[in-house]
Amino acid sequence: MFTQTIAYGILVGAMYGLITLGLGLLMGVMKFLNVAHGTFIVLGGYVSYWLFTHYGLNPYLSIPLVIAVMFVIGLAVYKVTLSPLLKLPDVGSRLNSSMLITFGIIYVVDNLMTIFWKPDVRSIVAPFTGRSMEFFGTKLSITGLCGFAVAIVIAVVLYLVLGRTQFGKHVRAATQDAEAASLCGINVQRTYLISSGIAIALAGIAGVIIVSSYSISPNSGLRWLLVAFVVMILAGEGNIHAIVPAGLILGLLEAVGVFIVGAPYRQVVALVIFIVILIFKPQGLFRKRRLTYG
Amino acid sequence: MRFHPGFISILAVIAACFIVLPLIVDLGSSTMNILILLFVYVILSQSWNLLGGYTGQINLGFAAYFGCGVLLTHLLWKSGIPIYLAITVGGLSAALLAGVIGLPTLHLRGAYFAIGTIALAEALRIVVGNVFPSSLSLPGGYASNFNVFPRYYLGFGIAVLAIVSAYGLVRSKFGLAMVCVRDDEEAAQVTGINTFKTKFIALLMSAFFAGLAGGVYSFNRFYFHHISAVFEPIWTFEPLMAVVIGGAGTLIGPIIGSVFLIVLSEIFVQTLGEAHLIIFGILLIPVVLYSPSGLVGWIGWLRRAVGGLTMTHDR
Asked: Could you tell me the pTM of the whole model?
C-alpha cells in the first residue's frame, strides 16, 4: 500500500512539474507573473479534447498540434497585452501589472470557454483510459505513465533548448541583463516573444495530460494555477531546471500527506506546504543556478 | 484628498436620494435586492482599495474575510444572537482571521504576498467545504417576517461608514504612511515608518469591512446551498476589478467601479449570463496598461478637457 502511494506520488509529481514549466519560464525570463496560466492549461486541454472527439486523434499524438495552436496564442498574448509592460522600469510594478492584466485574460477566456463549450466537466476517454500496468505488485495507470513520460521528455527538450542552442543563449542573456544583451546585438523583443509562445505552448501540453488523466471544465484553471505556484516556489523563482524535481517533491509530499489526513484535504496539504516554504525558505529548496551553464 | 464644497453637496444629495427614495416610491423587491448587492460591492471594493489601492499590497485572499463574515453572521444569527451583534462579531472575526493570515504573509513582498494570500484563502475554502458539506438554512420563522428595509438601510449605513472611514484614514498621517509604503517601501522604512505595522493595520481595517459586507450579505439570505461558495475567489476578483477599473487609490474609484459592475451584470444577466465579466476583463487590460488611474482618471481628463468644475483628487 505504501509503495503504491509513493509510485502514485511520483507520477503525479512529474505532471506537477510539467504544469509549472510555462509559468516558471515567463517568471524567470521576463518577470511576468501569468495568473492566467491555469486558464491556458484548460484551453490546451480543450484543443486536445476536440481533436479527439471530432477526429479521433490520440491525445498524445495531438500534442504537436496543441503546441502549434497554443504557441500562436502565446505570441498574440505577448504582443497585445504583455509587451507594453516592458517599459516599466522596476520588477515589482512589472509583476503587479502583469498579474492584473492576466486576471483580465482569465475572465475573458474562462467566460468565452463557458459560452462556447458549456460549463460541463469533460475528459478524454480513450481505449486505454482506466487501464493499468502492474510492476512488482504496484499498479500504475497507463495515462499516469504516459503523462510521466511526456513530462520527462518535455523537460529534457526544454533543458537542451535553453542550454545548447543559440536561441537558448539569447534567452539566458536577456534574462540576466536585457539591456546588455540588446547592446550585444541580441533581439531581446523577439527572444521575449518566442519565449512567451513557448511558455503558453507548455501550458497547452500540460492541458493535454490533464484532460487525458483527469478532467477539465472552463473554470478549473485556478486549481492548476495554485499547483503551479506551489511548485514554482519550491523550485525557487527563475530556477527553471529545478521545476520538475520540485514537482516530484510536491507529488511525494502530497501523496504521503493524503495517506495521513485523507483525500478531501489533498489540496490543503499542498497549500500548507506552500505557505511553510514561502515563509521559511522563500528562495526555494534548490540552490539557484541562474541559467548559466552550457 | 480635498473635496470642493460643491462636490460634497452633490454627494449629500445622492445620499439623501438613497435614504428617501425607497420610502416614497415602491421600488420592488428585485431592485431593492440589486441595491443591497451594490452596497455589498461598494463596501468590498472600498475595503480592498484600502490595502490594494492605497497601501499597494495586492490581496488575492480577500474572499476569505468576506466568507468568514457571511458564515459567522449566519451561524450566530441562527443560534439566536441579535443580527446586529452577529454582524459586528462577523466583522471582528474577519479582522482576527486577517491578523492570523497577515502575520506570516505580510512579510512577503509584492507578488509573493498575492500568491500567499490566495493559497491560504483556497485552503480555507476547501476546509469550510469539507466541514459544512450540506446546505445551511435558517429556520422558517426568520423568513416569515421578512422586511427588506432594515437590510437596505443597514447596507447603506455600512457602505457610508466604509467610505467615511476610508476618507478619514486616508487624510490622516497614517494614510500618508500607507501611500508611502505603496510608492516605495524601502524609502518609507528609511524615513522611520513602521512598514509592517502600517500594512498590518490597513489589512485589519480592510478585513473588518469585508466581514461587515459579509454580514450584510448574510442578513439578506436565508439559504446557502454550498456555504463554501461565499469563499470562492470570485469574491476577491470582482471587487479587485471594480477597484482597478474605477481607479485604484482613489475614494470615488471603487464606488464608480462597483456601480459599473452591478449595472453591467444586470444588463447581461438575462441574456448572456456571465458575459459582463468578459467585458470587465477586456476593460481591465487597457486600464492597467494605459490609464492606471481608471475611470476616475478619465473623468479628470474630461474635466480638464472641458475646463469645468474644480474637483481635485489625489494619485
From this structure: 0.87
